[in-house]
Fold this sequence. Notes:
- It is a single chain.
- Helix content is about 40%, strand content about 15%.
- With about 550 residues, it is an alpha+beta fold.
- It has three domains: about 5-205, Aldehyde Ferredoxin Oxidoreductase,  A, domain 1 (4-Layer Sandwich), CATH 3.60.9.10; about 245-410, Aldehyde Ferredoxin Oxidoreductase Protein, subunit A, domain 2 (Orthogonal Bundle); about 425-480 and about 500-560, Aldehyde Ferredoxin Oxidoreductase Protein, subunit A, domain 3, CATH 1.10.599.
- Strands 2-1-6-3-4-5 form a six-stranded mixed beta sheet.
- Strand 1 and strand 2 form a beta hairpin.
- The longest helix has 22 residues, at about 500-520.
- The radius of gyration is 22 Å and the shape is globular.
- The model has no long low-confidence stretch (mean pLDDT about 95).
Amino acid sequence: MARILRVDMSRLRTGWEEAPQEYRLLGSRALTSHIVNREAPPRCDPLGPENVLVIAPGLLGGTAVTTSGRASVGAKSPLTGGIKESNVGGLIGHKLAKLGIQAIVVRGAAPDGRSHLLMVSQDGASLEPADALAGLGNYDVARMLAGDGRTACAVSIGPAGEMRLAGASIAVTDPEGRPTRHAARGGLGAVMGSKGLKAIVVDDAGTPAFVPAADQKAYRQAVLDFSRLTLDDPRTQNMSKYGTAGVIRFVNRENVMSMPTRNHRLGMFGGAENISGQRIAELAPERAGKMLPCMAGCIIKCAILFNDAAGRHVTTALEFETIALMGSNLEIDDLDALARMDRLCDDLGLDTIETGNAFGVAMEAGVAPFGDWQRAIDLFDEIRRGTELGRALGGGTQAAARAFGVERVPVVKGQGLPAWEPRTLKAMGITYATSPQGADHTAGLVTARNATFDTYLQASRREQMLQAAVDSVGLCQFSNPTEGDMAKFVNAQLGLDWQGDDVLALGARVLKEEREFNLKAGFARDVDYIPEFLKTEPLHTSEGDMVYDVPDDLVESFWDF
């Protein structure tokens, strides 16, 4: 029987309960959002004791399905003021599922002001003082708690989370025991810090290799068929060579212009080739770089292990969004500098997208010159030391804009814009405006161009439903599962008779429940949250000047389903 681990930080107690029957078909994002909607008061202070922090594996967690090890972290966001789900790879999803844990629910706040460590294994769960971990970066915490990553997984916050900065992430160790996978978006690291929880160690030693399936024969065939499709897909083949950074050549074209540059003023960057996935691949042989899986059992292997010129590890998470927001957006085209900045984000526990946007706003205000990577790296030290400047930057894009008096703020629902440009990729503007998650490209990535506004709306709606389902079953979007693929897996694993429409219905349920929370939290019209500069400052593309011009009344019809 699946269990819920309840952690009461106010009383420093842990307890177990059987998962309610209504949770049986809810995993990962579907479950975290359901619990947050049911248990967190919508108008609570995100950093107060009434907020809940939920960690849940997907419906397929602990299985041999490739990329099935993803997990969700959910809470009310200190950035958006609404519900937030942040998806993460690493080892946490598989380990929780193998221990029969459907969710960890953390509430309250430690009364003693100290840092605490949650230990979880087959023997049970316990809270311990973690004074020795207080103030440490995620790399030191991972070394102390996860070792080589073979049995234990560490989930931790860095100094940014301990300082409750709204740009703070939650780190999860990868198969090498490094804290390179992050539940990054929405400032959920600050929520974890507000509860006095520095880290969680999950050890699944002694559990079976996989969670058993209801229909083992059908499950085995579905796994083989999907693995074959994934390996044969040109999209995943490209990911295996270049990671997500492989899209840089595509987005840095005159008709796409989705490489944010100079605080989103431009859509192309002259130094893009220097920081592309292809350039990283060229450096790999001489630096012993390689492609790795970010979670157990992934056959795509899109995580870029990037070493310095001496062959020493720097980061294993040099991804497109990181390169775009901290590279082109700041006009930095030095790969080694970007790798150092990425490592600093991982160590401090910061969302690279939010940090890149906050730095871009600061550079626009004259805090540092665009293109000055040395000064950019110095700014991370300001954050680590908790100076006034550092807190403004670590507080996220909107906080930085307020601190520096910048009016042109690249946020939607308080969250920094990803790289995908709404002026040329108009469906992305619809996704940002309508998604309960705010400006999050993973909510529904649609790169269609030269279509009608209605087509963009329909594409965004379908993709948001599909992605909510993908998140809920615990798969990675890069394996490109269809609703039919997911139905086959869920049927074989849980003994159901789902069709593709049932999978999309699950996604629709997630979206509506998240929106319900946001409405109760006081959110206004969806269209009010698109920054004005996206509507008035054109990008000069090869196909003409483009702004985000999707009619408001059409966007408001998004929820008519």
